[in-house]
Amino acid sequence: AKWKEALQFFRDMGRRRVGHDAITFNATISACARSGEWQQALELLSVMARCRVKSDRITFNSAVSACVKEGEWEKALELLKLTSKITVEANTITFNAAICACRKGGGWQKALLLPTVMAQ
Protein backbone atom coordinates (compact mmCIF):
# COMPACT_ATOMS: atom_id res chain seq x y z
CA ALA A 1 0.00 0.00 0.00
CA LYS A 2 1.19 3.51 -0.85
CA TRP A 3 0.60 4.84 2.66
CA LYS A 4 2.96 2.20 4.09
CA GLU A 5 5.64 3.20 1.60
CA ALA A 6 5.18 6.87 2.48
CA LEU A 7 5.36 6.09 6.19
CA GLN A 8 8.48 3.96 5.72
CA PHE A 9 10.16 6.71 3.70
CA PHE A 10 9.22 9.22 6.43
CA ARG A 11 10.75 6.98 9.11
CA ASP A 12 13.87 6.37 7.01
CA MET A 13 14.36 10.12 6.79
CA GLY A 14 14.40 10.30 10.57
CA ARG A 15 16.89 7.45 10.87
CA ARG A 16 19.16 9.21 8.41
CA ARG A 17 18.90 12.39 10.44
CA VAL A 18 17.13 14.24 7.65
CA GLY A 19 14.87 16.81 9.25
CA HIS A 20 11.13 16.64 8.81
CA ASP A 21 9.25 19.78 7.88
CA ALA A 22 5.60 20.63 7.28
CA ILE A 23 5.83 19.39 3.70
CA THR A 24 7.07 15.91 4.63
CA PHE A 25 4.52 15.62 7.45
CA ASN A 26 1.70 16.83 5.20
CA ALA A 27 2.60 14.44 2.39
CA THR A 28 2.71 11.48 4.76
CA ILE A 29 -0.52 12.46 6.54
CA SER A 30 -2.17 12.88 3.14
CA ALA A 31 -1.00 9.42 2.01
CA CYS A 32 -2.51 7.93 5.16
CA ALA A 33 -5.74 9.89 4.63
CA ARG A 34 -6.17 8.62 1.08
CA SER A 35 -5.98 5.06 2.40
CA GLY A 36 -8.33 5.67 5.32
CA GLU A 37 -5.53 5.18 7.84
CA TRP A 38 -6.90 7.80 10.22
CA GLN A 39 -5.05 6.49 13.28
CA GLN A 40 -1.70 6.76 11.51
CA ALA A 41 -2.60 10.23 10.24
CA LEU A 42 -3.52 11.44 13.73
CA GLU A 43 -0.40 9.88 15.21
CA LEU A 44 1.68 11.82 12.68
CA LEU A 45 -0.17 14.99 13.67
CA SER A 46 0.84 14.33 17.30
CA VAL A 47 4.45 13.67 16.30
CA MET A 48 4.40 16.89 14.29
CA ALA A 49 3.39 18.84 17.41
CA ARG A 50 6.01 17.10 19.56
CA CYS A 51 8.67 17.96 16.97
CA ARG A 52 7.50 21.57 17.04
CA VAL A 53 6.79 21.57 13.32
CA LYS A 54 4.09 24.13 12.61
CA SER A 55 0.92 22.60 11.21
CA ASP A 56 -1.12 24.45 8.63
CA ARG A 57 -4.42 24.26 6.79
CA ILE A 58 -3.12 21.48 4.54
CA THR A 59 -2.19 19.45 7.62
CA PHE A 60 -5.67 19.72 9.07
CA ASN A 61 -7.47 19.20 5.77
CA SER A 62 -5.58 15.94 5.38
CA ALA A 63 -6.10 14.88 9.00
CA VAL A 64 -9.85 15.57 8.92
CA SER A 65 -10.11 13.85 5.54
CA ALA A 66 -8.43 10.79 7.06
CA CYS A 67 -11.40 10.48 9.40
CA VAL A 68 -13.95 10.32 6.57
CA LYS A 69 -13.37 6.83 5.20
CA GLU A 70 -14.02 5.14 8.54
CA GLY A 71 -16.67 7.64 9.66
CA GLU A 72 -14.63 8.88 12.61
CA TRP A 73 -16.80 11.95 13.00
CA GLU A 74 -15.92 12.64 16.64
CA LYS A 75 -12.23 12.79 15.77
CA ALA A 76 -12.99 14.98 12.76
CA LEU A 77 -14.88 17.43 14.96
CA GLU A 78 -12.07 17.41 17.56
CA LEU A 79 -9.62 18.36 14.82
CA LEU A 80 -11.93 21.09 13.59
CA LYS A 81 -12.06 22.56 17.11
CA LEU A 82 -8.30 22.30 17.40
CA THR A 83 -7.80 24.49 14.33
CA SER A 84 -9.28 27.49 16.13
CA LYS A 85 -7.15 26.87 19.22
CA ILE A 86 -3.89 26.90 17.28
CA THR A 87 -4.90 29.66 14.87
CA VAL A 88 -5.12 27.54 11.75
CA GLU A 89 -8.03 28.80 9.73
CA ALA A 90 -10.32 25.97 8.64
CA ASN A 91 -11.67 26.35 5.12
CA THR A 92 -14.39 24.82 2.97
CA ILE A 93 -12.33 21.66 2.45
CA THR A 94 -11.90 21.18 6.20
CA PHE A 95 -15.60 21.70 6.91
CA ASN A 96 -16.72 19.51 4.02
CA ALA A 97 -14.49 16.67 5.21
CA ALA A 98 -15.89 17.03 8.74
CA ILE A 99 -19.46 17.00 7.38
CA CYS A 100 -18.68 13.86 5.32
CA ALA A 101 -17.21 12.12 8.37
CA CYS A 102 -20.34 12.99 10.39
CA ARG A 103 -22.62 11.73 7.64
CA LYS A 104 -20.69 8.49 7.18
CA GLY A 105 -20.28 7.81 10.90
CA GLY A 106 -23.84 8.52 11.93
CA GLY A 107 -23.19 11.93 13.45
CA TRP A 108 -25.46 13.69 10.97
CA GLN A 109 -27.06 15.84 13.70
CA LYS A 110 -23.67 17.43 14.36
CA ALA A 111 -23.12 17.86 10.63
CA LEU A 112 -26.22 20.04 10.48
CA LEU A 113 -24.57 22.54 12.85
CA LEU A 114 -21.33 22.89 10.92
CA PRO A 115 -22.56 25.31 8.23
CA THR A 116 -23.52 27.71 11.03
CA VAL A 117 -20.07 27.39 12.60
CA MET A 118 -18.46 27.86 9.21
CA ALA A 119 -20.33 31.13 8.64
CA GLN A 120 -18.91 32.65 11.85
Which keywords apply here?
120 residues, mainly alpha, 74% helix
Question: What do these coordinates show?
Answer:
It is a single chain. By secondary structure, the protein is mainly α. It is built from seven helices and no strands. The protein has helices at 2-15, 22-34, 38-50, 57-66, 73-85, 92-105, 108-119. The termini are far apart. The relative contact order is 0.12. The model has no long low-confidence stretch (mean pLDDT 85).
Brief synopsis:
The protein is an all-alpha fold and 120 residues long. It is built from seven helices and no strands. 74% of the residues lie in helices and 0% in strands.
- The tally of helices reads 7
What is the end-to-end distance? 40 Å
Would you tell me the structural class of the helices and strands?
mainly alpha
Order of helices and strands: HHHHHHH
> What share of the residues does DSSP label as strand, in percent?
under 5%
Gross morphology is: globular
Mean pLDDT: 85
- Outline the low-pLDDT stretches: none
Radius of gyration: 14 Å
The level of helicity is: over 70%
Number of β-strand runs = 0
**Major beta sheet, specifics?**
none
